[in-house]
Amino acid sequence: MAKLERDHYGTIELLVLKALSWAPAHGFGISRWIELVSGDEMQVQEGSLYPALYRLEAEGWISAEWGVSENRRRAKFYALTPLGRRMLRAEESRWRRFVETMGRVLAASPGALADERR
Question: 38 by DSSP, 3-state: which?
């Protein structure tokens, strides 16, 4: 399982925005959704998740309010704002371009530069 302890090209923020695109959730719920959807390949550490949530809230991409969790505990629930939805679409597009570009780079042959010079 990959532990997302540092941000990798906006990874944590994008994962949080996507998780919240379905419904409001508390921190543990967001983390668990990412684990489940990734087939347990990704795990967001608390030390990365909560600072990302605070950054997203400060940017106005998510909002937060206190509520009661499934196990009857007080928890802060986060929700995507309209600005957050727009940013999610923009970030998804940016990430898709990044992944496509990385795919081309990783699939390149050693002679690609020589082919270009001809």
Answer: coil
For residues 47, 14, 39 and 99, what is the CA-based torsion angle, rounded to 10 degrees? Answer: -120
Element (H, E) at 98: helix 82-107
* Mean pLDDT, rounded, for 67-94: 94
Q: Which DSSP string corresponds to 69-90?
A: -TTS-EEEEEEE-HHHHHHHHH
> Diameter of the chain by CA atoms?
68
pLDDT confidence of residue 3: 54
pTM score, whole prediction: 0.81
Domain covering 2-117, topology: Arc Repressor Mutant, subunit A (1.10.10)
What's the CA gap between 16 and 33, in Å, rounded?
9
